[in-house]
Design goal:
By secondary structure, the protein is α+β, with helices and mostly antiparallel strands. It folds into two domains: 205 residues, Sandwich (Jelly Rolls), CATH 2.60.120; 108 residues, OmpA-like domain (60s Ribosomal Protein L30, Chain: A, 2-Layer Sandwich), CATH 3.30.1330.60. Helix content is 14%, strand content 29%. The chain has five helices and 17 strands. The longest helix has 23 residues. The protein is elongated and about 75 Å long.
Length: 396
């Protein structure tokens, strides 16, 4: 047992990373760690410690736009992760949020089977121990990305001494690889359900530690995953305790705020009053613009970085409703451009629902066609700026 409360044994093969929130979020959020560079002193991100069970760890910090994340790989012969101490009262800060992505899952991995208990990603939270010896009596919740186990499955670890390690499967092989997903859990309510046999389901104290792990030593097959920002929050409004079998959950997503993307173009026109007479250029408003290729409705690759501003706004304003407006350049008929702009807006709406689990009723879609250019349509650069979708809202 180490001081975080995690058993130092093979039954905890998990992947944990807790990232920070940037400016704009008040004391309602507790970041577990702040990643500001790709440096890994001692082989782990600052504030974290490597924990190795089998084989040689293969992990590195990477950067995507303004966001840092941990990239882990296991080649069929390793089990390792990182851990850190974390003291959080989950009654006061019951919501835990993180982003993760799996590129490869261990073939046949199944948390329900002792001989196949391998996962590409796991997120664990340890609580105050319930008795002696602590190594066997520390309640630990494990949120995992399994392969074979159905989403929503929950139960105890199949490993020796794993009675107090209890899992919830959030993702499995039915989810897309290579795609980021955002999770939000009411960890206090999860604890009450998983540990109803201990103290009536009430935690005996604050959390003691968090951990991130990957393991493939049982199935002998490779796995690869990435863990992004994770934090605790006391914002319970509009958050539903997920029954993981349900793909969509209504809540705010991670609150890392990306720096504004500054774009320059010839003869660009300032457009701040677009929908319902609102001035979206005012401080505190969200006014995000995403550009599209000619005649395309496919979301561009850089959309994720821009979405972080939106998710931060959702944390501050859980009742926010966004106006999503599609636009085109002037090439083509008015009728064609009107329909194309609406399809672009609908595509962004679907993206926000699928990837960030934002409720559909909070997304208002419009198609403006070519009627609201922000740049000169006589130049290729200007037309590129006009082929866009805007996502906008201002606090009441």
């Amino acid at each position: 047992m180490d001081k975080t409360g995690f058993p130092v044994s093979g039954c905890l093969l998990a992947i944990f990373i807790f990232l920070s929130l940037c400016a704009g979020i008040e004391a309602s959020v507790i970041p577990v760690s702040k990643y500001r560079s790709t440096e890994m002193p001692g082989g782990a991100p600052a504030g974290w410690f490597v924990e190795k069970k089998v084989g040689v760890p293969s992990m590195k910090m990477e950067k995507d736009g303004e966001n840092y994340y941990l990239h882990l790989q296991s080649f069929g012969n390793s089990a390792y992760g990182i851990r850190t101490s974390s003291r959080v009262n989950v009654k006061e800060f019951p919501i835990i949020t993180w982003r993760w992505r799996v590129d490869k899952m261990p073939a046949g991995g199944d948390v329900r089977k002792k001989a196949a208990d391998d996962q590409a990603l796991q997120v664990y939270v340890a609580f105050k121990e319930t008795g002696f010896p602590a190594v066997l009596n520390t309640p630990v919740i494990g949120y995992i990305w399994d392969n074979e186990a159905p989403k929503g499955w929950s139960g105890r670890s199949s490993q020796i001494g794993g009675d107090k390690l209890r899992y919830i499967v959030l993702r499995n092989k039915t989810d897309k690889t290579g795609q980021w997903y955002t999770e939000r859990r009411n960890i206090y309510e999860d604890y009450q359900k998983l540990f109803s046999d201990i103290n009536g389901g009430e935690p005996l104290g604050v959390t003691t530690g968090v951990q991130v792990y990957i393991n493939t030593q049982r199935t002998k097959t490779p796995a690869e995953g990435m863990m992004g920002q994770i934090y605790f929050s006391n914002e319970t409004r509009d958050v539903v305790v997920t029954e993981a079998a349900k793909e969509k959950i209504t809540a705010r997503t991670t609150a890392i705020i990306a720096k504004p993307v500054v774009m320059t173009a010839p003869k660009r026109k300032p457009v701040s009053v677009i929908a319902a007479g609102k001035d979206f250029s005012k401080p505190g408003c969200v006014n995000i613009s995403v550009e599209f290729e000619t005649n395309s409705t496919e979301a561009p690759p850089d959309i994720d970085g821009k979405m972080q501003r939106l998710t931060a706004y959702l944390v501050k304003y859980p009742q926010a409703r966004f106006t999503i407006t599609g636009h085109t350049d002037h090439v083509g008929s008015d009728a064609y451009n009107k329909a194309l702009s609406l399809r672009r807006a609908e595509r962004v709406k679907s993206y926000l629902i699928e990837k960030f689990s934002i409720e559909a009723k909070r997304l208002i879609v419009k198609g403006a066609g070519s009627s609201q250019p922000v740049a000169d349509n006589s130049t290729p650069e200007g037309r590129k700026l006009n082929r866009r979708v805007t996502i906008q809202d201002c606090p009441e």
